[in-house]
Each structure stands twice: as C-alpha cells, then as structure tokens.
Write a structure and sequence with these properties.
Blueprint (H helix, E strand, L loop, with lengths): L13 H28 L12 H12 L20 H12 L4 H4 L6 H11 L2 H12 L4 E5 L16 E5 L2 E12 L6 E9 L11 E7 L5 E7 L11 E12 L10 H8 L1 H26 L5 E2 L2 E2 L4 H35 L1 H26 L10 H10 L7 H13 L2 H20 L2
Parallel strand pairs: 1-4
Antiparallel strand pairs: 2-3, 3-7, 4-5, 6-7, 8-9
The structure holds flavin-adenine dinucleotide.
Length: 434
C-alpha cells in the first residue's frame, strides 16, 4: 500500500488495511469534492448558525455505511468504538485532516471526541444512556466549557465559574468563552468546569465538572468569537454566560472536586488527534503547492515556478518537516498504545508543540508559491493556516507544554552529572598515566 508514513503497513491487520483504503477513497473522492458544496449550502446572516449544510449529513450516512464511524474510541472503550490502536487511528486521522468535512462525517470531530471519551470513561450508566448514546449515533453535538475571559485559563486552577450545591441541585454562575461547538443548533449538552470548593487547600480538588443540557434556563450564548475573521459557523467558538443555571446533582461527572482528574483524562490522546489531522493538512498543502508550481501557465522571469531554486528548496524543506512531525505523532501514538496517555506525556507534549508550527510553516510556503490566490477563499490554505495557529493555544499553549517537557528533561540532571563526574575521573587517571 503506497504511503508516506513510517509504519510498515504489512504489519497491520488486513481488516485495518481495508479500512484505510476505504478511508482514503472516501476523503479524496467524497469529502474533498464536497467542500465547495458545503460552502455553497452554508446559510447567510443569522442562518449561518441555524442551517447545517445537507451535504454533511449525506456524508455521515455514507461514511457510517462503510465502517468509518467513531474510529477514535480505542480498545479500552470496549464496544463503544472501533477498537483501533492509537497508531491505527493516527494513520486514519491523518487522512481525515486532509478535508474539513472528513472528521465530522466519521463522527470523529472535536470537541465531541473528547466529550464522548469523558462520558465513556467516567459517565454513570444513566449519563451514558442520555448523552453518550446520541453522541455516538451522531444525532447531537456537545461542547466543553472551561476557558473564561476574566482569568488566564491555561492554568485551569484559575477558573472562577461557581458551582454551588443547593439541596438536590447545583447552581452555576460564570462566564466562559471560546466554547467550540456551542453555536451549532445540534449542540445539546455542555460539560462545564467550575469551582465547587474554592477554599479547598488542595488547589486541584477545588473544581468539578457538571453536565449541563444546552437548553437549561439561565444560559445565554452571547456571541461567536472570530479567529482572524473566520467564525467557523455553524459550530462556532462562543462566549456564554451562566446565570443561576440549575442542574440535578446527578449531573456531576465522577464526583465533587474531581474536575481536574477528568480534564487530565480527557486530554491525553485528544491532544494528538489534532496533530494527526495536521499532518494530513500539511500533506494536502504540499500537494497544492506542487500542483501550482508545475502548472505550465505560471511562469515568471522566463521560468516555470518550479524551476526557481528557492521554490524547489521550499518543497524539500516541507517534505522533511512533515515527515519529522509524522514521526513525532506516530511515536506518541505508539507510546500511548504501550503505556497509556499518562506514561506518554513527554511524547504527547513534543508532538503538540512541534506539529502545529510545522503546519504553519508548510502552509505558509504553499500560500507564498500560490501568490495572492493562496490567501483567498479559493484554496483551503488560508483555513488551514488559521486553524494551525489556534492549535498553538487550544488544549494548552505551546509554552505550557514546553515548560513541562523541559522540566522532564531536567529531571535527568543528577544522572547526567554523575556520569560526567565518572568520565572526568577516568579521564584524569588516563592523563596522569601519560
Ligand atoms: C479556536 C479556539 C477554540 C477553543 N476551544 C475551546 C473550547 O472548546 N473550550 C474551552 O474551554 N476553551 C477553548 N479554547 C480556549 C483555549 O483552550 C485557551 O485559549 C487556552 O487554554 C489559553 O488560555 P487563555 O486564552 O486564557 O490564555 P492565558 O492563560 O491568558 O495565556 C496567555 C499566554 O500566556 C503564556 N503562558 C501561559 N502559561 C505559560 C507558562 N507556563 N510559561 C510561559 N508562558 C506561558 C502563553 O503564551 C499563553 O498563550 C479555544 C481557543 C481557540 C483559539
């Protein structure tokens, strides 16, 4: 099977290879041609937040009928998902990253994936019946509400939304923003992170996560935020206020004070799902660049664009960077398969830091080679660029991951210093004998 990846496909099961071939065909021949249809079917004005382009539901039906559904839920989730390894899912997610329509048509798009993992991992049978089932079925969508405008939210201990128990209910008050998916008319449920015990001396036990149906009184979706002018309708990234929002105590996830535990569990493999899709976007950007610079009608200063040395070098650099990034992502996926996300923190951080920046660089070169068309609505490049930029914040800014990674490396200091001391002693002895 022709592939650019570092995985020997012959070592993967025939069943997986068949799935991979179907996925590749689906992305290239169904999703990519449908992208312009999706754009044409998008509602205008207020309808941007009311109309789901019908082509998306058609793609979902087709994808599901050929087994491309809930692929992100691995073996540990039993019958809930497809039972793939993270390496297998990584290879498929790379394909899905090539088209903005593929992840949702496979029911594998954020933030639903992470939310489904929360329900599957920590939900009670009643919570799973009410929310996980329709999510797995692609009937509803969901949002994860943590970030707040008033505090630096990359440190989740700062979160201020108040969750107060009153009898058999929790009462929620706070303001969130950048809540992805909350603009979508199909978004039926939010997972809301807030403080239920602000005085707890352990600052990681102050938070709880509660399930809030999106139609609960007291919720106000104030506005969709824009990313460089893109509103990402119909999903959106919304600012939302919660004013005396009441939910039954049964809506707590895992238990009071265990919100941190849940978000840690939610963001393991989820972080590299984005990275996997970035590799696919980078491959498509490079393909677009190659097609453009070899177009015989694009000539400057007596040469075809592909005859200029700088463009050839840019293509080479992009090829190297994509393959380096793929190596990091697949190595993180393999480590998660071997020792679960908790044991793969270092590899996940490396991928999370390196891959979005790689995508920005590869897309930037492709946009440059395209000329002004590269930053227009006529290619997917501008959308790829903007999404890659947001990934340098989403699920934790680069600096936070770099800080963690650097500290992990520094923990080796004592061992390194001891080794160097022994080397010096040996070297001194050898020199003394001269
Ligand atoms: C498109 C998009 C979608 C999003 N979707 C969601 C969502 O669905 N749900 C949700 O809850 N949130 C979402 N977010 C929010 C995102 O998770 C936050 O923006 C992110 O966690 C950073 O928080 P902040 O914006 O409050 O930045 P701050 O916490 O104010 O941080 C600002 C900057 O400080 C620097 N910094 C922080 N810590 C360190 C450190 N240790 N060392 C050095 N520098 C540091 C970093 O450069 C960081 O960017 C989304 C954001 C975007 C852009």
């Amino acid at each position: 099977m022709a592939t650019n990846s570092l995985v020997d496909f012959n070592t993967l099961s025939p069943k997986f290879r068949e799935l991979y071939a179907k996925a590749k065909d689906f992305v290239e021949n169904e999703c990519i041609p449908a992208e312009k249809v999706f754009a044409a079917q998008m509602g205008q004005g207020e309808n941007r937040w009311k109309v789901i382009p019908p082509v998306l539901e058609e793609l979902k039906v087709k994808a599901r009928s050929i087994g491309l559904w809930n692929l992100f839920l691995g073996r540990e989730y039993g019958n809930f998902g497809a039972g793939l390894t993270n390496v297998e899912y990584g290879l498929l997610a790379e394909l899905s990253g090539r088209s903005s329509l593929a992840p949702e048509s496979w029911n594998c798009s954020a933030p639903d994936t992470g939310n489904m993992e929360v329900f599957a991992k920590y939900g009670t049978p009643a919570q799973q019946e009410r929310w996980l089932k329709p999510l797995l079925d692609g009937k509803i969508r969901s949002a994860f509400a943590m970030t707040e405008p008033a505090v630096a939210s990359s440190d989740a201990t700062n979160i201020e939304t108040n969750i107060r128990r009153e009898g058999n209910e929790y009462v929620i008050n706070g303001r969130k923003w950048w809540i992805s998916g909350a603009g979508d008319p199909r978004c039926a449920v939010y997972l809301v992170m807030g403080k239920s015990d602000a005085e707890n001396s352990n600052r990681h036990k102050q938070q709880s996560l509660v399930i809030v149906p999106a139609d609960t009184p007291g919720i106000n979706v104030v506005r969709p935020m824009q990313v460089f002018g893109f509103d990402d309708a119909p999903e959106g990234h919304c600012e939302i206020t919660f004013t005396d929002v009441r939910v039954p105590v049964e809506n707590i996830v895992l238990g009071e004070g265990r919100g941190f535990e849940v978000i840690q569990g939610r963001l393991g493999p989820g972080r590299i799902h984005h990275c996997m899709r970035c590799i696919g976007k980078a491959e498509r950007a490079l393909e677009l660049m190659i097609a453009r610079v070899t177009d015989p009608s694009r000539r400057t200063f007596g040469k075809g664009l592909a005859e200029h040395g700088t463009i050839v070098a840019d293509i080479a650099t992009s090829r190297i960077e994509i393959d380096q990034a793929r190596f990091l992502v697949l190595s993180a996926a393999r480590k998660i398969d071997e020792v679960k996300a908790k044991g793969a923190k270092k590899e996940i951080s490396m991928a999370k830091i390196a891959v979005p920046t790689m995508l920005l660089n590869v897309v930037d070169r492709a946009m440059q080679a395209y000329g002004a068309a590269g930053i227009s609505q006529d290619t997917p490049l501008a959308g790829f660029f903007v999404r890659a930029r947001t990934l340098r914040y989403a699920d934790g800014p680069d600096e936070v991951h770099r800080n963690q990674l650097g500290k992990t490396e520094l923990r080796r200091a004592a061992e390194i210093v001891e080794k160097m001391k022994q080397q010096k002693e040996k070297s001194d002895q050898l020199v003394a004998k001269l």
